Amino acid sequence: MGQIITFGEVLMRISPRGNRKFIQSNTVEFYFGGTEVNVGLSIAHFGGNVKHITCISDDFIGDTAISYLNKFDLDTTAIIRTNRPLGVYFLEVGAVMRPSSISYNRSHSAFSEIKPHMVDWEKSLANGNWFHWTGITPALTQGSFDTLKEGLKLAKEKGMQVSADPTYRSGLWQYGVNSREALTELLHCSTIFIGGINEMNEVLGTNFGYTNDEFIEASKMLIEKFPSIVKVFDKIRTSINASWHKIRARMWNGEDFRETEDFDITHIVDRIGTGDAFAAGLIYGLQYYDDYKSMQFASAACALKHTYVGDVNYATIEEVTRILDGNVSGRFNR
Amino acid sequence: MGQIITFGEVLMRISPRGNRKFIQSNTVEFYFGGTEVNVGLSIAHFGGNVKHITCISDDFIGDTAISYLNKFDLDTTAIIRTNRPLGVYFLEVGAVMRPSSISYNRSHSAFSEIKPHMVDWEKSLANGNWFHWTGITPALTQGSFDTLKEGLKLAKEKGMQVSADPTYRSGLWQYGVNSREALTELLHCSTIFIGGINEMNEVLGTNFGYTNDEFIEASKMLIEKFPSIVKVFDKIRTSINASWHKIRARMWNGEDFRETEDFDITHIVDRIGTGDAFAAGLIYGLQYYDDYKSMQFASAACALKHTYVGDVNYATIEEVTRILDGNVSGRFNR
Amino acid sequence: MGQIITFGEVLMRISPRGNRKFIQSNTVEFYFGGTEVNVGLSIAHFGGNVKHITCISDDFIGDTAISYLNKFDLDTTAIIRTNRPLGVYFLEVGAVMRPSSISYNRSHSAFSEIKPHMVDWEKSLANGNWFHWTGITPALTQGSFDTLKEGLKLAKEKGMQVSADPTYRSGLWQYGVNSREALTELLHCSTIFIGGINEMNEVLGTNFGYTNDEFIEASKMLIEKFPSIVKVFDKIRTSINASWHKIRARMWNGEDFRETEDFDITHIVDRIGTGDAFAAGLIYGLQYYDDYKSMQFASAACALKHTYVGDVNYATIEEVTRILDGNVSGRFNR
Amino acid sequence: MGQIITFGEVLMRISPRGNRKFIQSNTVEFYFGGTEVNVGLSIAHFGGNVKHITCISDDFIGDTAISYLNKFDLDTTAIIRTNRPLGVYFLEVGAVMRPSSISYNRSHSAFSEIKPHMVDWEKSLANGNWFHWTGITPALTQGSFDTLKEGLKLAKEKGMQVSADPTYRSGLWQYGVNSREALTELLHCSTIFIGGINEMNEVLGTNFGYTNDEFIEASKMLIEKFPSIVKVFDKIRTSINASWHKIRARMWNGEDFRETEDFDITHIVDRIGTGDAFAAGLIYGLQYYDDYKSMQFASAACALKHTYVGDVNYATIEEVTRILDGNVSGRFNR
Amino acid sequence: MGQIITFGEVLMRISPRGNRKFIQSNTVEFYFGGTEVNVGLSIAHFGGNVKHITCISDDFIGDTAISYLNKFDLDTTAIIRTNRPLGVYFLEVGAVMRPSSISYNRSHSAFSEIKPHMVDWEKSLANGNWFHWTGITPALTQGSFDTLKEGLKLAKEKGMQVSADPTYRSGLWQYGVNSREALTELLHCSTIFIGGINEMNEVLGTNFGYTNDEFIEASKMLIEKFPSIVKVFDKIRTSINASWHKIRARMWNGEDFRETEDFDITHIVDRIGTGDAFAAGLIYGLQYYDDYKSMQFASAACALKHTYVGDVNYATIEEVTRILDGNVSGRFNR
Amino acid sequence: MGQIITFGEVLMRISPRGNRKFIQSNTVEFYFGGTEVNVGLSIAHFGGNVKHITCISDDFIGDTAISYLNKFDLDTTAIIRTNRPLGVYFLEVGAVMRPSSISYNRSHSAFSEIKPHMVDWEKSLANGNWFHWTGITPALTQGSFDTLKEGLKLAKEKGMQVSADPTYRSGLWQYGVNSREALTELLHCSTIFIGGINEMNEVLGTNFGYTNDEFIEASKMLIEKFPSIVKVFDKIRTSINASWHKIRARMWNGEDFRETEDFDITHIVDRIGTGDAFAAGLIYGLQYYDDYKSMQFASAACALKHTYVGDVNYATIEEVTRILDGNVSGRFNR
């Protein structure tokens, strides 16, 4: 397995314990995360060789972030340090009919002020065979968009696999670029699309619904528009409430449509990063398995992430495999 | 919105973390609450103008209690301080088939020794347009009953709205007064009845069952007996077990019977104060909405309270409104 | 009620908070447990007179263990102290489809090096009328097997009741003894069998399935083979996932087959020691009740244990009785 | 060593962590203590045979208190349970020039309502050879004074040693008895006086200063007035500030005056119960040692208590002995 | 006592427990502070009438900040809310020879983007008789400087007392203004100077040393240059190490030089905000006492602040007064 | 700077919070440490290139240990995993005159069962230029002694620097080897001796006292006996009590005797690993500085370690350097 490259902002997450709000707390817990590094850390935890590229504050908070990434044996050697602060987000974890609440302090962070010249892409991608990006990075600032674009172009030139998770968040994209145009440019460098109807509608300008037939039709249209893309993977979440979800996945790989059974996640511990756990499972799976089994692996990884507090999936390869083998009842051996 | 007056004991609640018993713990958490102040704090947290009248110990525990109330921007200027201790209750939060356990240390508290001359009701109600009381206060001591009675009489004279939540607890009423007679006297000063079949049976001396028809019949009888009362609101709780309840509400306003759909509260965090959250939602709602929408607002507030640890409802007006708008799946936007 | 004797290893359990893994933690909680002492502590907590015999380290960890047992007013006077360390186990509590994980450090513990001459069985059993053992003890070392055997023989001679819970764990039995032979020898000293199909198959060398008919057939065969055994009690667990189980029980007492209804344990707090809680409930129940009511008592005790963190059942006699009286909805009175 | 009897109120202490105030906290820690039970627990922890007699609430807080005492293997069989709450005190631990703050909620506690008929003194003192009392108990209520008096009279009749620690707190003695008269009556049943100039001045009505000469003179006068008393032990505390004290002791046993060197307690962890640790060390010491060595033992025990959080001295006999042997530099062996 | 006005940034402080670094932690504690609001909160805690003016994020972190200020009964009605995040700082508390470490994330905070038109100074100062400012505010941005300047000019016009604490931090003043010129302009609106030699040298362009004579000479020169200023108060800190300081104060009021004795702060809990506690004590004191006693009051308040974790001085008026009365040994009464 | 090799057991340390004993706790904190890995981690934290060689359990505790080492960017690629448990030690941190207490569970740990064939020394030392060992490793088992010996012989062959810290603990050395002979063999492969009079007396069989003259004489004798050794560094600790130490260092490098001034460590946070911090500082320092400055660096590192909880020195190169530059008063800049 060659080196997998992830690129994106590392954020410090600060959350009260359990389901408390900040207004009820004076003790909080912190984690580090960010959609792309979550993917990288999860793959590293499976044993993969992953390098994460980002820009981090040159203070003890930045040191702590790097130490956190090192725990997973992620390659942190290409990380840039500047004197801007690390981005922070505050999360209050909801329950039942109360959704989680989030507040960001990232708009002038170290990463948001990244510029293309700060990354030595040639060196960074030297041993890479896979590049993963998401729609968050181009949505932040012109600098982060340009830097990503430069990396993706080189990845394409080098013939790397490029997985795209073009998650769309309306609260971002504030700096003046047209989101569809930007994503279009980046998707032309990509080979695997990880996203659902919303994301396809966003980049295609369509209005497809959520049925499997529409998913297949949208996927075909996507592949037609972006010929470099060969496969589409979608994770479907059904929320009973903030504490109880169901998860399944479906795919179109140009030939076959497949879908998995539902995982019934009756007692969610933390849903942040579960989509990233799906992407990580998929990327890891595709190194070893066929498309369908990779999707199953990704679904199981995603389901397991709901049982870990924090942004990162602490599931091990053994835990995911045990579920793939049909052990979903949570019984333990001793 | 004029000033809402609440009157009643403030208690310090002490609870082990999670579902632990005291015998398993050496660290505990504390909160302040009490059925009437819970109502007041919840309305203040919605942005209402609320004054709470009570009697609190003149020590650092009393200082802490007042500081806790101030957090919510509740008007604490009418609070009396004496050298008796603050009442305390100990709560062990149950789970599944294990009920919560409670133990009180309140019988000689600062509040229990309140006397009518200690409250300047004229001044306290000067800007009030609503008075809320519960059946706990008259059940404590002759002094607390008398003090409440004096306040209610003035409220009636001033033409204030008076909401009554005559919760009946058999463990109280130890000081020699007949509970039905006492409540009857107080209900004659009241305009809104917040309670169900049990409370109506208690004050009417009847034996109605739980059907809607019986609820309507009981409400009519209540309104006949207490002509000042014009509306009856009832919250119905179905306990699957200590961790999983369903909540709905119904009302009779002299003309219409209405009921809400069930909220399915699959993962209860803390059920203390959920009835108070209903009362608070109702009182707040009735300032702005019609009876039915007020009851819906109250139900949503009550349901949300189950997701907050402590006695007080930390739900914001936005959170309640989002549920009224139909968003009950707990998904969060970012 | 005479004195109940339990004999077996006391382990220190170390667990992260909630559903965290060690790799996510730097604060952990500790408890003491072990299948036999869990039974003893639970009976002592019900108010029974219980003596636990074991071997514990002669250091501050051993002091802490004894202090923990003393909390329950268990008779600790027969406990032996040596300079070997106390056994430890590490537990990560799972959730939903993630099973709990366990890692033991017990193979050279104080208890594992126990030898028959170290226990004065005559004195230890002087006031005993019941002896409880499990399949863990003979599975550890030759010394622990021999010591147990000596105790059981004396118990048989003295005509004590002997309950056997021959839990089989394949990870143990590493020291060279044939497990079936060893258990056979010990079962010939026993009067009550607490175990299910798996345990009966293990000692009978059969291959029965899980139906009630097969349970009865296996029980009859067991009683035929071990004439000292007169009753068989079985607890059946259905795992929806690691957070949600159902529990029921069944029995054959030589004459009647009976089974209980399911307890639906929708929000598990900690499932460690729930089987021990069943055994404890059964032993306690059989001092006072008939077989069927004892089994009901045991089931309720077992169900309640799922709501307590740690290895020991903190349920009180009142809590169990309330459930026997049909109050399973977890409502609390105040 | 015969059984040592202690009699007095058990209080629940609730304190924020470290040096926080309640107003800064939402998490607190709880302990159980009370001057007489602190003495009993400390002696039990040294390995002594101690029975504590008290009256405790019949609820889960009372259960927790008894479980706490059982940890130390204290004999709790004579404890009375009533439906009054356990007394509580709140403590904020000071630092440097900030003194600790304390607030009591004990005036209608289970113990404060004790009456002589509730204690079976004959049975309770059956195996006793030492009775320890303090000036707190007679200062609470007529009932607690009368109950103590009855016990002391029987102790005197039986020829038991009786140690008196007549600590005087002006905030108590509110129920109408003259403190000097009450203490005088009790001291006439006592054999060992544990107290200093303030206490002697209080019971003698004198005005002695703090010099050694005055101490000797006061002691002589005390022994003359109370012929049953044969020895006087005094602990002298010098406060540099709330975090740094010096402790030494002196004695007059009718023949010799002796005093110890200062212990320099440069980093106090918790000073509550340090006087009780002195009394406990003295009582324990006097079972084995001469007066001077007992006083040294008591001083070392007292000094060590300053390093333990909570009311009880967790020092072991080995820790005290090591200091008696001259190892005061806190170096540890491994 | 009229209303005291404070104006400045409110920051969220995040710190690991005790002396841990972030790299050693996953749990942290948060507080709110900021040099000016620390002064305001401390005076409010003494019972003063204080209004704080600032600009805070319009999210749940901002809500939590306001709730925190409300605890102290500070007037928060003039606080502006915008959609920029609240400033944050991270603090690692040192010990012995290890200094504390600090990292700021405040450069694009809600407050840093304040502009003069956002504050209605006329309304804000309507009931004010004292305005307190520090050198932090003009050092942040042109907007914060301009807004402060406008407020101070109005304060001068209205004849309010204006206290200036022109703390100089070289890490600030990055936006292009000359610090001496800016401070000069602001000092011409001020009446009380709270600062030492460093601050006087900064604004005078002098190079005085730390002797009392030089302090007097510098003070005279300052008063000559800024005729509105009538008194100079200086707090002198001697650091033995990060855990042990000595504090004293000196003053020149145009006529007299006075200085206090040292407070020996042998066990520092938290030194953040101790300078603000001095300023608060001084402002509060000058409402009631003469200059010297006010300075003593301020010194005692400052000393006490070292014993409270967090930015705010939780000392009460009773605690400060007890020290003024000479009780510095930290003994407590009960 | 070439790669520094450390070899030795990694232990899990479990400690209650603050100065609590286990018997007072139910929550504890864990760390990883061990004298040699402490040295390695500290050097890695300074930025050095360090590889640690050890044998660790193949379970989630072992995974957690490796993740902990990775945080420091230590090279963990040569670590062996077996199915024996990781060694554990329990530590209760003392205060004032109470020493810390320690209890080990390491005698059958993964490392204790290491054998020479399990380590590929050729590969492990391929890039090494320094090897550090301590007297703990040969004291454990024959296997650990033999494995170390093999490594040291190769290191000597390769001409690497070898630092020896032959700490002598009488509680070890239980497996039958003569400690002096074993250490002698290992010292003949060493070039730097880190130890004091006790260690020199142990290996020389002498009886030198603690004066500087005797230190020089002993050092000369040591160098004569072990010609490979060229320098001796000694750290001298003066314990006022368990909370307050003084530290200084002295050296003999064959030519010069030098000693440092005392560091006065008035408020110790955690003294475990402070000797290892000295060794780490020395090894790091000797890569860049002369002997004397290296010793100063080592002393400052050692002093700083007393302010960090846990076994590892979290001091950064900047923190040590600041002290070398004379800033020992703990003032912080902002």
Description:
Chains A, B, C, D, E, F: GO terms for molecular function: 2-dehydro-3-deoxygluconokinase activity. The structure is a homohexamer of 334-residue chains. With 334 residues, chain A is an alpha/beta fold. Chain A has a single domain (3-324), classed as Ribokinase (UDP-N-acetylmuramoyl-L-alanine:D-glutamate ligase). The first copy, chain A, is built from 11 helices and 15 strands. Chain A has helices at residues 35-46, 60-71, 121-124, 136-140, 142-157, 179-187, 197-204, 212-225, 274-286, 291-305, 317-324; strands at 3-7, 11-16, 27-33, 50-53, 55-57, 80-82, 87-92, 101-105, 128-134, 161-165, 192-194, 231-241, 244-252, 257-259, 263-265. In chain A, strands 1, 4, 9, 10, 11, 12, 13, 14 and 15 form a 9-stranded mixed beta sheet that branches. In chain A, strands 3-2-7-8 form a 4-stranded mixed beta sheet. In chain A, helix 7 packs parallel to helix 8 and helix 9 runs antiparallel to helix 10 (291-305). Chain A starts with a strand and ends in a 10-residue tail after the last helix. In chain A, 60% of the residues are buried. Chain A binds chain E through residues 14, 21-23, 25-31, 57, 59-61, 63-64, 67, 85-86, 88, 90, 92, 101, 103-105, 107-108, and chain E through 14, 21-23, 25-31, 57, 59-61, 63-64, 67, 85-86, 88, 90, 92, 101, 103-105, 107-108.
